[in-house]
Amino acid sequence: MSLDLSPLTASQEARRQIEICNACRYCEGFCAVFPAMTRQKSFADGDLTQLANLCHNCRGCYYACQYTAPHEFALNIPAALAEVRVQSWERLARPRALARLFQTHGVAMAGLLVVALAWFFWALTALRPDAGAGFYAYLAHNTLVAIFLPAFLLPLALMALSIRDYWREIGGGPVRLAHLLQALQAAAQMKNLSGGHGDGCNFESGDRFSDRRRIFHQLMMYGFLLCFAATSSGTILHYAFGWQAPYPLLSLPKLLGVPGGLMMVAGAAGLAVLKLRADPALGAARVWGGEMAFILLLGVVALTGLALYAATGTGLVAPLLALHLATVMVLFLLLPFSKMVHGFYRLAALVAEAGQPAPKGGAD
């Protein structure tokens, strides 16, 4: 059953469904959402925002539920929480209008930005610097820093403000180191994608339990972190040791970046296939295209980076460099508005959950 919820009714519908689930509690061990909801009997909007961002949309609760359509309760917790979750990203983002525009036209926005920026970087390569090796022979290091530093720091600042507002909305308290470590452990293990039964989630089908979604998420997350570490190590080598790119295969940037890029490509391909197989009615259907575009954008960022490395010394370097830089910049610029932000919200939700007292036992 597909849910078409407006901003005025999404919280009301989620609250209705959560209260029914809280009375039943059959799914209590499935993920972090259900133990969290048992702490109270009524739910403010901030409580719903927190529960929605705890939800990993594994869909196990839907397939296990006896109250889904055609039952008169017509429960669809994954879709109801997905809509509240997406609306929280829209509402708390800055600027809010741009966030809402991306959620409904994300594919077009990302595509147009990639094309425009690729042409921009292609034009810059015509102004080749006097010195430099590798792709620095096409674009000077200082030019890249001047372009990318604000494009990276500004979205991070906007996202930090959004997370601050999220923390206030859910009534989050002081962050203790133990809570942060517990949340990081849950995020690193993708604990809430393992399913309450331990056989994985059934994101694709009610009859198929699998860890594939968790594995693909881990490939994407750890691959991205490796690529970020590769870039960071290259920056340290450049400024602290005067060792400038290009770096050989057995250098730290390449030893981190090449495996990281391969992991991201594999993760993006796997997540895209799973998303095509899964029922869009069990998520926020109106942003399905934007979410798919985000997955593909991550994959293209990694793929063009690997292709650029493989094309070293050939005539393909200039066009591949322009395309790679364009996709990386689009990823940065859309950071506060795309699904990339979900990792930060989810980590904040896990930290807040770690600071809560253990839920009481069964229903009254």
From TrEMBL:
InterPro entries, per the entry: Citrate_utilization_prot_B, NarG-like_sf
Keyword terms of this UniProt record: Membrane, Transmembrane, Transmembrane helix
Ranges annotated as spanning the membrane: 101-123, 135-158, 219-241, 256-276, 288-310, 316-337
Protein name in the entry: Tricarballylate utilization 4Fe-4S protein TcuB
Encoding gene (name): tcuB
